[in-house]
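Students often ask what a 'structure token' actually looks like in practice. Rather than answer in the abstract, let us consider Potassium-transporting ATPase potassium-binding subunit, a protein of 558 residues. Its sequence is given first.
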Amino acid sequence: MGIVQIIVVILILVLLVKPVGTYLYHVFSNEPNRTDRVFGATEKGIYRLIGLKHRGGMSWKKYVLSFIVTNLVLVVFSYLFLRLQKGLPLNPGGIGNMEETLTFNTVISFITNTNLQHYSGETGVSYFSQMAVMTMLMFTSAASGFSVAVAFVRGITGRRSVGNFFEDFVKAHIRIFIPLALLVTMALVALHVPQTLKPTLEVTTLEGQTQQIAIGPVASLESIKHIGTNGGGFFGANSAHPFENPGPLSNVLEIISMWLLPASLPYMYGKFAGNKRQGWMIFGAMMTLFVVLLGVNYAAESAGNPAINAMGIDASQGSMEGKEVRFGIAQSALFTTVTTAATTGSVNNMHDTLTPLGSITPLTLMMLNNVFGGKGVGLINMLMYAILGVFLCGLMVGRTPEFLGRKIEAREMKLIAIAILIHPLIILVPTAGAFLTELGKGSISNPGFHGMTQVLYEYVSSAANNGSGFEGLADNTSFWNITTGVVMLLGRYVSMIAMLAVAGSLLRKKPVPETIGTFRTDNGLFTGILIGTVLIIGALTFLPVIVLGPVAEYLTLR
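Now compare that with the structural description of the same chain:
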């Protein structure tokens, strides 16, 4: 029955990819279409308000500058709000100002679409902060990432320019995130997710004691949390909390919400490239890797914990430690795989309690960071590997590599090398540094192989802008707040800037006519080469540290 549940959700997603991908193309193609009738007047009003009189194309450098400056302004306001939240309105719980390094970490976390939470939502921030900082940054960070992805696609598919950042930013909000968030919010409220500004509920327990139960504007945050692949929870328990995720139906809704837009981007890319088949090939490569890693997690969790099984305890239900009974193994495994594939970071079970082999799935997906990925980042990274695969194949046969009719030369490969190398660098170096400086100070709760996985997971999650964590790590200290904050910044902006530079470089080149010797990128052979390129680079980079963590822990339990 569990496998049937998983198959049904995947089929729903696949059926929605084409219509949603087509809609995304119409939004960002900058060609007149029917969506202009619905949203055009609102957008023109915003353009007048912000002084955007001319919406002509930008150079890639101006696009990057606009992206970074916009994000910087949002960071400043968000930092001030969190540092002053005690004196701001909508604070019925009287929550104090956030500590300096935690504020730095939190603001960087949300602006980079990571939402790594070193605080507990219901006790760490006020209603005002939840809405004016957390929810606001969930919209703007998602729209920023989407805009950069579309600009990259325009560049490599030979459009006249990479576009205008402010136009893309507004369209992403008005035509995608706000309408979808409203729909999902109403659906979640119908499924009994709270949406209120009332203070905490005071109830009397069965023992006759008084208990305060936190509530608040939960549904509105939950909707954009998943649609924008943000992941930050209103409550500390995230989507394992019944007020965030009451049952199986809300669980499926949240899975589809965080998976649909990233999964539809390859089809949108195919429309931009004038070759929908190529978009499906990219989607096929992503889905193949996804299904394999989902199978690893589902099989490992269904088999149970080897140490507990050896004690003779019934393992027919699998490893239910840290999981909600209302979801079971299947919906927990699917949620875990989707949230790390789409770099959302939302959790409906505690990843720290995953079996050693089960934890390989979320780690691998974040290490690869290209299996669907977050708002646009996954598509950018997968296309980066596609260009790299074409380059390698060209070297093998002695031809100058071409991708979408443009030659791949030294400049593009240097930029791609930067984007590929920065990811393991900002994961492995801080992981080693954490063990050199923090071991024995109490933040690493498990000094063994599981502790290795805890620390590794924290930096992998930060670098991939995912935000989920192994919660056994006591991470709200100056060391963890600052180091993960720096990793999140580098993980977000270095690769985006490098890949926009690639798009700008390819855009300047004259197209090369297709010949009989042109390597096709819209067939099964190319899909196989793409998957192979991703796995070879990923395995060579991260396999040793996977062996030191999850694999070594598994072997000690046998």
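One point worth highlighting: The longest helix spans residues 524-557. Ask yourself how you might have guessed this from the sequence alone, and why that guess would often be unreliable.
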